[in-house]
Design brief:
With 165 residues, the protein is an all-alpha fold. It folds into 2 domains: 40 residues; 118 residues, Cytochrome c-like domain (Cytochrome Bc1 Complex, Chain D, domain 2, Orthogonal Bundle). 57% of the residues lie in helices and 2% in strands. It is elongated and about 100 Å long. The protein binds heme C.
Length: 165
């Protein structure tokens, strides 16, 4: 009699365990697909967020509007011949630049260009031109190009993260 009771208890315990597992596996795929769609929303500069042609256009703009201060190779310039004092113009490529912008979004970088640069004439470039220069700066920092142009939309650019590596 006592034995039968133990058997029944074990049987119930096994049933509970099996149904717990069944629920777990049933919910598993749901949780996974939610995580997957969240991951596809998260994009970074490593995902090919501009095209080669766009970076090319940006390069021509950079040479015209930015290069005199930030250097032909985005290396930064400490002092121009015309400047009586040291006015540091920071590099737009390499470790310092990447570290400054690491974890921020392309929207932040785009707005920085748009609002404050070129320093001697802010607001000269159109939104499209600013996006093209952002594309060029990404290219010169070694981030890959892709199949789609970067749109000059703040809300879209805000979803793309700058990740150092
Ligand atoms: C007349 C010189 C001059 C020109 C032209 C110029 N800049 Fe600058 N830029 C500066 C100076 C000086 C600073 C540092 C002071 C500051 O932040 O305003 C700077 C800072 C920056 C920064 C911040 C860098 C960092 O890591 O924090 C970015 C980004 C930038 N410039 C982008 C551009 C772009 C893009 C252009 C061309 C559209 C441009 N600049 C044209 C002088 C210039």
């Amino acid at each position: 009699m006592r034995n039968t009771l133990i058997h029944i208890l074990i049987f119930i315990a096994v049933l509970v365990a099996i149904s717990a597992l069944a629920i777990w596996f049933n919910l598993g795929p749901v949780a996974h697909s939610a995580a997957a769609s969240a991951a596809s929303v998260h994009r970074s500069v490593w995902d090919g967020v501009y095209t080669y042609a766009q970076a090319d256009r940006g390069g021509a703009l950079y040479d015209r509007y930015c290069g005199a201060c930030h250097g032909r190779y985005l290396e930064g310039i400490a002092q121009l011949p015309s400047e009586p004092v040291w006015v540091r113009k920071p590099p737009l490529s390499g470790g310092e630049f990447r570290a400054n912008w690491n974890d921020m979004s392309l929207g932040d970088l785009f707005e920085r260009f748009r609002i404050s640069m070129p320093q001697n004439a802010p607001g000269t470039l159109t939104r499209q031109q600013n996006a093209d220069v952002v594309a060029y700066v990404l290219q010169q920092n070694g981030y890959p190009s892709g199949g789609q142009e970067m749109m000059p939309e703040r809300s879209l650019l805000d979803t793309i993260k700058i990740e150092w590596w």
